[in-house]
Amino acid sequence: MRDAREVLKRPVVSEKSVGMVEENKYSFWVNPAANKIEVKAAVEKIFKVQVTEVRTISVHGKIKRVGHNSGKTPDRKKAIVTLKAGDRIEGFAGL
Fold first, then answer.
1. Which of 46, 81, 84, 86 has the most CB atoms around its CB within 10 Å?
2. Terminus-to-terminus CA distance in the chain, angstroms?
3. What is the tens place of the pLDDT at every residue in 63-82?
4. Residue 10: which H helix or E strand, with range?
């Protein structure tokens, strides 16, 4: 099993993800090789909360072009974590 800091990369900060905090749902960019069990264990260990549900989404990279040069943004994986009622992650509250 991977270390908790290797599984969670950073929180997803967008208008939609900040709005989901009211529903007790938090979004994170995670290691693409991580599974739901590892994501749940990492969130519970780092933030000392109880997770009830984990949903994962594989986000495919987009092709970007600048002039004649083209490239691809990397593929990423996003996890949406639902916490037990009453639990909160304090870092998201101020966003």
1. 81
2. 31
3. 999 999 999 999 999 999 99
4. strand 8-11
Q: Is the pTM of this model over 0.70?
A: yes
Sheet holding 51-59, edge to edge: 8-11, 25-30, 76-83, 51-59
Task: Cite the beta strand spans of 50-89 per DSSP E.
Answer: 51-59, 63-66, 69-72, 76-83
Q: Tell me the HSE value of 12 on the side-chain side, using a 13 A CA sphere.
A: 23
Amino acid identity for residue 78 in this structure: K
Q: 34, 28, 17, 43: which is closest to 95 by C-alpha?
A: 17
> Which tokens sit at 17?
């993800």
